[in-house]
Each structure stands twice: as structure tokens, then as C-alpha cells.
Amino acid sequence: MTDATYMTVNGKVVPSAEAQINVASPAAKYGIGVFEGIRGYWNADDEQLYVFRLREHLARLKQSLKLLRLDDDHAIERLESFVLEMIRANDFKTTIQMRIMALLDDADGARTDNGPVGVYVQGGPCPPHPFMRSGLTAGTSSWARTADNALPVRIKCNANYVNGRLAELEARAGGFDRAIFLNSRGKVSEGPGATLFLIRGGRPVTPSPSNDLLESITRDTLMRLLRETQDLETQERDVDRTEVYAAEEAFLCGTLAEVTPIISLDGIPVGDGAVGPVTRALQKSYLDTVTGASSDHADWRTPVYV
Ligand SMILES: Cc1ncc(COP(=O)(O)O)c(C=O)c1O
């Protein structure tokens, strides 16, 4: 993602270079803030940019604010306009990745435990994920995923990503492309920024939400698409580490990761070490859905230019 010319701050379009937060704010000092990563897909035939599942992302942002006891000052429709205004101000006509951040930031007034919360939206062009075609190698992290009774991953808050950073840098130092977390019970949780699916005995399996993972919007989308396009029902349950080694196929998914195949875990090939047929077919139906190449699920796509 590159920095664009304009962003929105509490709904106002400002040059990105002028947007500021207070270095003494709880957001800067302790990472007290919540956010969403959102994508918009350019459809050249329609000459339209579609934001994917914007409402669901904003609903999750509001849930994160609530769980962190932060002030939630804006209706979903208003937050939606903050995002759309940022896109229109930059006149993006390409696929983009955006971030909406709600930060405990006292730049404008006296601070309380709960507010004021500043809402910032930035974004920029985003090329296809580098591992979409080739797949990636993953390593099991020695760091445990933080538990729901410690630092809950269900809250998409800035501070959680320190746990992800530890795993990601460890994986890279070990020669892997990405990390996979186990949770404090030793069960497979997710990647630092993506949830995980396996294909075992021809059936999709994914860790259930009580395995210390983000309730991913892409995960929900893919469960629907697997059912509708491949007649496959996903099992949500505890997943053992050795099940990934034994799986026919595995992939990570997320707004940024889209559908990224995993070709090995800890040096052990998943299946025959090539990207499998269920994953390939799912990549196609996902990309058709997000770009609007398929007319199904029109309610998931918010057109920007009307
Ligand atoms: C920790 C974590 N898990 C999973 C995901 C995937 O979630 P989504 O599909 O809603 O983008 C993300 C990305 O937002 C994430 O940060």
C-alpha cells in the first residue's frame, strides 16, 4: 500500500502530510486504538470501484470500540461516508487497500479513559498478493496466540499486532514466508493477519472462533462460496497441528491475504506441495465476487462512484 494524497480525519478530507496524532496520546503510547483493513476492487467493465463488505467491516470496528470501552460517536452510515470520501478525494480507479483507524487520541481536547476517539481513513493502490499463484511456506510459531482472557484477538486493536510481529519476524528468520500460531491449548489458531482453512478427506475445515482468532469476514465469505460454488460444507472445530501436515490442501485467508495457498508447514509439504484444486477454484470464485465479475452477492459490494 502506498500513501495517497488525501485521507479523512473525523470525516474531513485533509492532505495526508497534514494528518497528525498527539505523541503523548494513549494511541501513541500504548497502542490504544482499533482498526479495519478494507479493500476496494476496480472493475474496468463497469468503470466502478467496489468496496467489499464495507458494512460488515464497520460493524466489527464498532464492536471493537465497544469491547475496549472506547467512545463510539458515529453511526455506520457516517463511518461509511468517511471511507467513501477518502476514495473519491483521491479519485482511485484501481484496486486499493484501506485502513480505518479509531484511536484514543487527545489531540483536540482533554483526555478521558474512553475518548476522544479520532477516526482516520487512509488508503492506496494495492497489487495482487505475491503468494496467490505460487503459494507460501509456513512455519509454526514458538509464540502462542494471545488468549481471549489476556489480549483478545476478537478485538481488532492495534496492540494485538505485537503478538503477530513476534511470530512473523521469527518465521522469516527461520526461512519461512509466514507464521502459523497455536493457541495456549496447543490447537491451531490462525496466521498473524489471516485465518486458516484445510481440506481434509475432501472437506473444508477451519478452527472455530473460540480458538483465539479474529472473526474474519473473508472466512465467512469463503464458507458461503465453498457451499454455493463447490457444494462443500465447512467444519468449524479444534484443529491439531499435525492435521495441517496431513491435509490435502491448506490456505490462509483475509482481506489482504485473499486466498493464499500454503504449500508446506515446517518444511513438510501440504498434500503434494502444489496448490490444490479446491483452493484454485475458490480463488477464482472469490476474485469474481469481490470484483463484481460475478453478479452474485451484489449486497457485499458498495459502489464508490455513483
Ligand atoms: C489477526 C487477523 N486475523 C484474520 C484476519 C482476516 O480478517 P478479514 O477477513 O476480516 O480481513 C485479519 C485481517 O484483518 C487479522 O488481522
Please tell me about this protein's structure.
- The chain has helices at residues 26-30, 54-67, 76-90, 161-173, 217-230, 241-246, 277-291; strands at residues 6-9, 12-15, 33-43, 48-52, 96-104, 117-125, 136-144, 178-182, 195-200, 203-207, 235-237, 249-254, 258-265, 268-269, 301-303.
- Strands 7, 8, 9, 10, 11, 12, 13 and 14 form an 8-stranded mixed β-sheet that branches. Strands 2-1-6-5-3-4-15 form a 7-stranded antiparallel β-sheet.
- The model has no long low-confidence stretch (mean pLDDT 96).
- It has 306 residues and is of the alpha+beta class.
- The chain is built from 7 helices and 15 strands.
- Helix 5 crosses helix 7.
- 27% of the residues lie in helices and 29% in strands.
- The relative contact order is 0.15.
- It has 2 domains: 6-125, 2-Layer Sandwich (D-amino Acid Aminotransferase, Chain A, domain 1), CATH 3.30.470.10; 136-291, Alpha-Beta Barrel (D-amino Acid Aminotransferase, Chain A, domain 2), CATH 3.20.10.
- Helix 5 (217-230) links the parallel strand 10 and strand 11.
- Bound molecules: pyridoxal-5'-phosphate.
- Pyridoxal-5'-phosphate (PLP) is lined by residues 37, 153, 190, 193-195, 214, 216-219, 254-255.
